[in-house]
């Protein structure tokens, strides 16, 4: 039981970290595409 909850918390933390990386990457990509569009 304890092991399962520990694994779940680690998985949730990794998922949140991955989502934040993905969001920051998407922001950089959209900013780059916007610059390309204006030039």
Description:
- This protein is 95% helix and 0% strand.
- The protein has one helix at residues 2-38.
- The protein is built from one helix and no strands.
- The mean pLDDT is 89.
- It is rod-shaped and about 55 Å long.
- The protein has 39 residues and is mostly helical.
| Biggest pleated sheet | none
Residue ranges: pLDDT <50 for 5 or more in a row? Answer: none
Shape verdict:
rod-shaped
**H/E element order:** H
From the alpha carbons, calculate the radius of gyration and give it in angstroms.
17 Å
Alpha-carbon distance between the two ends: 57 Å
Number of strands: 0
The proportion of strand residues reads under 5%
Task: Determine the mean pLDDT.
Answer: 89
- Binned, the helix content reads over 70%
Give the count of helical stretches: 1
Structural class: mainly alpha
